[in-house]
Amino acid sequence: MSRFSIEQIFIYPVKSLGGMAVSRAEITSSGSLRGDREWIVTRPNGTMLWQGDIPHMTLLSAQLENGRLIIVDRDGEFSPRAEEGGGVTVDLEGHELAGTDQGDAVADWLSHRLQSACRLVHIGRQAHQWAGLNPVHAISTVSLHALNKRLTERGEAAVELKRFRPNVVLSGTHPAFAEETVEEIIFNGASLSLREPCVRCELPNISLEDASRGKQPLKLIGALSRERPSARPASFGTYCTAYGQTLQVGMSSSEV
């Protein structure tokens, strides 16, 4: 039997930028977390930009303070004026969503730091309603420890959990990768329904220190996935749907 606890919760106000740790998060009607990925960095033509296009995005982070967005890098921060620009259409992975451009000032600030022309668009509630939504991404510290043990045995550096951009970090008394095999984790007042293992893109290979691209941990993740019948190719962590009103750090599950 396995027991899970919520060790950390993160939301990422701007898609593909770094996020913020929170002690509790409101669950939306779609099973996602309020405030998560409600802004998108786009090209001037409205197509989404992500770290695969511009690895330097990993060096920027976004925070919400009383509903106000603040974007931070190592040299300063910028807070766009809410709903400053006009209505635009965003191409999000082939899905067209209506949004509000956040104005020239933040576009210039981001374009300078990312060395590429871009805009910032607020899509708000649509972030939790579009057809491609994967509501919550969870990883386990037990599974991360197993991955890092194999990395260090090969002479590779251990990888930080933030490279995986989780919403929920689970810990507890469960075997490594048990989160791939349980159907539901029930907490007091909330639950996580496990949908499918998360197939990784290249983002975990991008350094949080200098945005350089490496080969690990994705290469090893692919090898470890082949050892587990419950895994999908190159998968680590799981996509989930949350139910209830809120998720909170410290919640512990019943045995599963």
Automatic annotation (TrEMBL):
Top-level taxon in the UniProt lineage: Bacteria
InterPro entries: MoCF_Sase_C, MOCOS_middle, Pyrv_Knase-like_insert_dom_sf
GO molecular function: catalytic activity; molybdenum ion binding; pyridoxal phosphate binding
Domain MOSC: 108-256
Signal peptide coordinates: none
Designated name of the protein: MOSC domain-containing protein
Organism: Devosia pacifica
